[in-house]
Write a structure and sequence with these properties.
Helix content is 29%, strand content 0%. The chain is elongated and about 130 Å long. It contains five helices and no strands. With 202 residues, the protein is an all-alpha fold. The chain has a domain of 31 residues. This is CCHC-type domain-containing protein. Keywords: Metal-binding, Zinc, Zinc-finger. GO terms for molecular function: nucleic acid binding; zinc ion binding. InterPro entries: Znf_CCHC (IPR001878), Znf_CCHC_sf (IPR036875).
């Protein structure tokens, strides 16, 4: 198969001195034992949480709280005299502050009456039911923007239908009108014979 000829060792003085393999193995074994001993020691000491608990147990809880949160700090802060605020006429206001004119920020009111009802979320309706289209029956749109809507087909009135419509209206009896002055039928109050003529005598 492959050649097993050994390479002759170099005889030059530049070559590195050969290291004994037994020493390498002993060094590797020492490193492995040291790593193993560290792991065993860590297991004996417990996890970092256990060590933290042991460390906290040796100290009082007050050492882990900042001084600004302690009662002594705010007692010291309020140890001085707190004078009451007098009447505004007795205040000493600097002239620069007194001469300042502060205007409200620019505000543009919206047109119309302000809405009092809250904005409803998507899919929320007054009655809680989902709205459907009356043409196709699907939800999400109404009959105005329905894609399945057919064009409106209005029948053109024919001559016979027009005559029938006129005859239908003509068949209904008309109410006779009466005069308000004399009460007779056939004329109104303006054409009543009892009305005096302008410029004439009755």
């Amino acid at each position: 198969m492959f050649g097993t000829s050994a390479i002759p060792p170099s005889t030059s003085d530049d070559s590195e001195p050969e290291v004994d393999n037994s020493e390498k193995k002993s060094n590797e074994g020492g490193l492995a034992t040291s790593l193993l001993s560290e792991k065993v020691l860590a297991k004996q000491q417990g996890s970092w949480r256990d060590r933290a608990r042991k460390g906290f147990a040796k100290k009082p809880f007050g050492d882990f709280c900042g001084d600004c949160y302690k009662t002594t700090s705010w007692v010291e802060a309020y140890s001085g005299n707190i004078f009451p605020v007098g009447h505004p006429s007795e205040w000493t206001i600097p002239e620069g502050v007194r001469s300042m004119v502060v205007y409200p920020p620019p505000f543009r009111a919206q047109a119309g009456r302000p809405k009092k009802k809250r904005y409803k979320s998507a899919g929320e309706h007054k009655n809680g039911n989902t709205r459907h289209c009356t043409i196709c029956g699907k939800s999400g749109h109404n009959r105005q923007n329905c894609r399945n809507a057919q064009p409106c087909q209005i029948p053109v009135p024919s001559a016979t239908s027009a005559t029938s419509a006129t005859t239908a209206t003509s068949k209904r009896p008309r109410r006779p009108y009466r005069c308000r002055k004399c009460g007779e039928e056939g004329h109104n109050s303006q054409k009543c014979p009892l009305t005096p003529e302008v410029g004439g005598t009755t």
